[in-house]
Amino acid sequence: MKKLHAPLLFITGCLLLITIASCGGSDAKTASTAKDKYEKEKETLEEMEKKNPLRFLNANVVKDKKNLLGQKVIKGTVNNKAKVAIYKDVEVKILYYSKTASLLGESIETVYDNIAPGTAAAFKSKEWAPKGTDSVVLKVINAKVE
Asked: Chain centroid to CA 74: how far?
């Protein structure tokens, strides 16, 4: 009877050691692979944001009025909706429309500012607007990545 218990205890002990050894290393590997996966996803997100700046930037008119000289003064913001990328030197196309929604003219303004993720940059432009201008629309057409 004693001879039967010794091999059984030996086999049980070996299985227990193997189980403990495999569990201890697994946690470190899992944490390492999770971190690596996060870093890869972060890199791919950054690459996507750098390749498509127009997808993550938008421009809005805050206020437009005429000054004493008759120039159109446009105050606007450029918003960065990206999670990682920082944009700079954003080119904004200013479109002038009539009351009947006909395009009367356009100009380009460059916003020389670094725009961090989730932030906005304010700008101001003074232009001689075409006669009959009723509304102004802003559109981001180009940006550099920092």
From this structure: 26
- How far is it, in rounded angstroms, from Cα 131 to Cα 116? 37
Question: What residue has token string 């009539």?
Answer: 98
pTM over cut 0.85:
no
SS (H, E, C) the chain: CHHHHHHHHHHHHHHHHHHHHHHHHHHHHHHHHHHHHHHHHHHHHHHHHHHCHHHHEEEEEEEEEECCCCCEEEEEEEEECCCCCCEEEEEEEEEEECCCCCEEEEEEEEEEEEECCCCEEEEEEEECCCCCCCEEEEEEEEEEEC
Q: Is the pLDDT of residue 124 over 80?
A: yes
Contact 108, 141 (CB under 8 A): yes
Average pLDDT over residues 62-66: 93
Across 84-99, average pLDDT: 96
Cβ neighbour number for residue 64 with a 10 Å cutoff: 19
How is residue 137 written in tokens? 């629309």
